[in-house]
Amino acid sequence: MPNGVWAMMSSRLMLVISIVISAALSRLLPHVPNVTPIAAVALFSGAYLADRRLAVLVPLAAMLVSDLILGFYGPGEMAAVYLSFTLVVALGFWVSEKRSTTRIASAAITASLLFFVITNFAVWAFGTMYPKSAAGLAECYIAALPFFRYTLAGDLSCTLLLFGGFALLEQSFPVLRERAAALR
Q: What is the pTM of this model?
């Protein structure tokens, strides 16, 4: 592979990885509860990193680093959070097949719903706040609804910033354009 092509791919890859890590670590900054870029980061990673292992590893590793600083909670709940973001990366694989505004927005909304359903199920299943019954599960989801609007708002706005910002960078800097990445 010619050196010029490697340099173009390397620039794009390094930028995507830097964006993913920076956004994931931004959860360390003060923020409204549930308004973080993590789902957008996972979606972006799946959509833009050609190596699927790397697409999963980079956002989860960045999240792990921030969790080391913020602290951990129950293992069942932690597993649910990491599982939900792994599934969001898989949504990013779907987005990468044909990036469009509709597909990206649909994936962001689905990401919010996945996170809500999976993590709140884990709170019910592994926690002690709710009875282990259908009524307890319903109570758990109902109690979480006020936070869902923040999750959805954060996921949509951060997805817009990441995908829109990267599209603007691609327009401004030819070395970052998809043609260069297609030669990978």
A: 0.84
Rounded to whole angstroms, what are the CA distances from 69 to 27, 29, 83? 11, 12, 20
129, amino acid identity:
M
Which residue ranges in the chain fall short of pLDDT 50?
Answer: 1-2, 4-8, 180-184
Q: Do residues 114 and 71 make contact, with C-beta atoms less than 8 angstroms apart?
A: no
Number of neighbours of residue 51 by Cβ within 10 angstroms: 11
In residues, how long is the chain? 184
Domain ranges of the chain: 3-178
The Cα–Cα gap between 111 and 41 comes to 11
DSSP state of 100: -
- State residue 63's pLDDT score: 83
The alpha helices in the chain, defined as continuous H runs, are 3-25, 38-48, 52-70, 75-97, 101-126, 134-172, 178-182
d(CA 125, CA 122): 5
Separation of alpha carbons 10 and 176, rounded Å: 9
